[in-house]
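Attaching the record inline, Q. Sequence:
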Amino acid sequence: MAEIVVLGSGSGPPHTQDRFFTSIILMVNSSCYLLDCGEPASALMFRNGIDSFSTRAVFISHLHPDHIGGLAGLLSSMNFVRRSSSKKFKAWSITRYDDWYRDAIRFPEQVVEADKDAKLDLFIPSEGVEGIKKYLDAVYLSPELMPFALDISPVENGLFYVDENIKVSASPNLHLKNNFRYEKLRDTHSKIQMQSYSFMIEVEGKKIVFSGDIDSLEELTPFMDGADILMVEIAHYDPEGIKPFVDRYAPEQVILIHIHPGLEERIAKLVEEWDDPRISIAEDGYSLTI
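Structure, as predicted:
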């Protein structure tokens, strides 16, 4: 069984009452995989009945706060409830009334031995690896303090993650490099590389493309041949080009995400005009069984 759940469908501006920041869950069998981690990802997982213990890997497309701002909260929630490989919770069936929830969420009387089999893989653009490690140290979420193994690795071009459930590949895009506001950083911040990625996930014979943030739909072409599901943001280019792009590559499903508050009416009107059953506008809590 595999399912997509859109936890947060919004874009960077926080002034919306209807959408939280970008975070997408892919649930496969008893494991969860998180595509971006905008705040409040861990709270939204619980509100959608998804067990954060079952999160196996987190893939961050780029380091804008609306895509990574919920990471500390996610790790903190796993720390509070003592993530453990011996606890076998269903990935999408928890409630606040479950015995384990009442028993687990507490300040422990003593530090428990780390369960290194309960590993969490975190993949982020390489320019941020050292900075994120220092940030986690500063907020008392150092990997050595976690009761589970936390492995922080860089996203790499091409196929970079494989387990028994999924394969994940990355392709760079120009979301950051084409932003004129960042030109001044090239000389003053030598470690800034303006890395931004789109992902392709292969699961149960299907190919899912997750755009991240892009400057142009054409940046997705390396992944589009044979793509079954396209999850595409609409905040950083003219969304009118989505329909021709979809017709060219013919995915089975297209989920529009990263909705800018100022585009709500326009994208709704475009989808109505396109009258294409493949194309849907995500809301927080949207789900699709694969």
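The radius of gyration is 19 Å. Residues 84-92, 102-112 have pLDDT under 50 and may be disordered.

More tomorrow.
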